[in-house]
Specification:
Number of domains: 1
Helix content: 25-40%
Pfam families: FeS_assembly_P
Shape: globular
Protein name: Iron-sulfur cluster assembly protein
CATH topology: GMP Synthetase, Chain A, domain 3
Number of strands: 4
Structural class: alpha/beta
Strand content: 15-25%
Organism: Albibacterium profundi
Order of helices and strands: EHEEHEH
Strand order of the largest sheet: 1-2-3-4
InterPro entries: Fe-S_Maturation_MIP18 (IPR052339), FSCA_dom_sf (IPR034904), MIP18-like (IPR002744)
Length: 106
């Protein structure tokens, strides 16, 4: 994950995002490797660039809305942005060791 943190709240954003789960997978989106970048600016803008496990994810809107809400809940964040990308495409190698263990891939 790339972090550019001029506002000094990236750790709090990451922690907030660790409470977001894909309803079909019992692992949070950070451990799944779905969060590619956290960028904050001194003006209070916080942007998360993320992906989904599949482009046709049936719960995409719900996950993106929850990510938006979690970013907005962090102190000092005035403007929260979520950008969805599929470049690079997500694959299992992006998961943390903890996620692979939890899902039985180790």
């Amino acid at each position: 994950m790339i972090v550019l943190d001029k506002l000094g709240v990236a750790d709090q954003i990451k922690e907030a995002l660790e409470s977001v789960f894909d309803p079909e997978i019992p692992v949070n989106i950070v451990e799944l490797g779905l969060v590619y970048e956290i960028i904050t600016k001194e003006d209070g803008t916080a942007k998360v660039i993320m992906t989904l496990t599949a482009p046709n994810c049936p719960v995409a809107d719900g996950i993106i809305n929850e990510v938006q809400e979690k970013i907005e809940s962090v102190d000092k964040v005035e403007n929260a942005l979520v950008e969805l990308t599929f470049d690079p495409a997500w694959d299992r190698s992006m998961m943390s060791d903890e996620a692979r263990l939890e899902l039985g891939f180790m």
